Amino acid sequence: MFNILIVDDQKHIRDGLQAMLSQFSLQPDSIYCAANGIEALQILRQTSIQLVITDIRMPEMDGLALMAITKEERIKVDYLIISGYSDFAYAQKAIGLGAKGYLLKPVKQEDLQTAVEHVWQEIKTRQTLSRNMKHISRRARETDRKELCMYMQGATNDEAWVHQTQQQNPELWGNYRLCLLREKLWINQPGASSAHSMESIAYSVYGRRGCICLQHGPHLILAVDADVDAGALPAALQAGQIDAITAMTDPQQGLKGLPDSYTQVLELYRHSYLFPDKRCILPTHIERLEQQWQLPHEELYALFQLIGAKNSSEITQGISMMFHKDVLQRYHIRYTQQLCRAMVQMLEEYERVIRPYMGEEALDIECLRNLFDYPGIRDYIQALQQQLLRLNQFYYEYKCSYRNTQDVNEAIRFIHESYHKPLDLAMVSNHVSLNYAYFSNLFKKNIGKGFAEYLRDVRLDKARRLLAETEHKIVEVAAMVGYESYKSFTRAFREVMDMQPTEYRQLMRRKYEREGKYHDIAL
User: Fold this and answer.
1) Bridge-partner residues for 4, per DSSP?
2) Radius of gyration of the chain (CA)
3) Are 347 and 368 in contact (CB under 8 A)?
4) What is the pTM assigned to this prediction?
5) How many angstroms separate the CA atoms of 220 and 380, rounded?
6) How far apart are CA 145 and CA 179, in angstroms?
7) pLDDT tens by residue, 51-107
8) 132: phi > 0 → left, psi -120 to 50 → alpha, else beta; which?
9) CB 3.0-4.6 Å disulfide test: which of 30, 215, 427, 465 passes with 221?
10) What residues contact 210, with CB distance under 8 A and at least 6 apart?
11) Phi-psi region for residue 282, left (φ > 0), alpha (ψ -120 to 50) or beta?
């Protein structure tokens, strides 16, 4: 951006300068005009101006006063001075105030163009240097932050580096806390993380010298001034409508204690899952937690004994009892982690039994391996309950399928044993002690055809063997395979085989004769 302000109390000079500028190959973005220093100062305070072309002598506020005030107010702008021969002493003062040059009246177009282009090149050079310096400074700060982060996480470093780094901010490292911020988000909650917003709020609470960001991901970790009340940051986050849990260590003196503070803040972060209702977790909240325990193996086995039940409410109740907050909050977080691992192991064992019967269906056990992948303990328990109920449904269907298979197999055995007797669906369903309609649907679902069709196929299969291998009359064959009349037998045979029983017998005998002759020739 290159904006120019022309300041002169004579309108024709202002218009002339503006006309000259508009003819240059270097075109300013905007050209502003002012009749005196007061008007010019108002424009400079409200608008980004890079170059002021001003007369020295003007009523109310001259060019020198304008330059002095803008310098005092630290308004960054360059000046070109317009003066006559008699004003040379004023021009020298203007150059002393930082003017980039002066132009003699009357101003020549080529002189104005040369001076403006010279100033513009100088501005561009300064802007480039400023950008480079900002980039270098930013990269240097990022390098320092990465080194601090690695040192915090256990990377070794020499005494000289520790001393030098501590001296860069001795007030903070003299008394600081580590602070980890975990935003409370629901699974699949839309929207980006508020890490930068949380960092900005932290700087507003502690100031630039009282706060250093050491890590952005996976969680925001800050070193903050320990003299500031521990509740100030959680309160500021709440006021900023950011739902986050803050884990904050004891005060630490000296940079050498940073790795130990990191270990402590991670421990506090893990325990924040036990206390989802606390906005700030401090070491005092976990110091009395029990360190020894026995996992509830009997309750765990009893819970899994319910797997396969039609009513799943007892399973849900069992999970709620086992993961009740009053139980979990008695022990170190390792108890909860071990309980989660035990649940996953039992899920794996039960899934292994029915895995061959599940087809493409499967449990998502992998999602349960790490409690800390979830926004909170409640989300993990919900996911665990979902997988356990899915396992229960699979087992229930598997047990039903197993029982149904036994019933159908017994029905098939009974049909093959009794096909030659009067037989109907009611007789077979009574034999396996199942409801008539239920058995009819179950049979068709498992066999792929209805009972009547299956019985007909069994009887006709037996009849074809008798027709081909014996000399029994057709009417005798019909009775032998369970048909009460010759007519009903021949009708059923013709529908399936597309020929009469006599035709079938003749066809099979001709076939046997051909096979017999072939056998004699082969011998």
Assistant:
1) 31, 51
2) 46
3) yes
4) 0.54
5) 22
6) 15
7) 999 988 888 888 888 989 998 998 989 999 888 766 667 767 777 777 888 888 888
8) alpha
9) 215
10) 171, 172, 224, 225, 228
11) beta
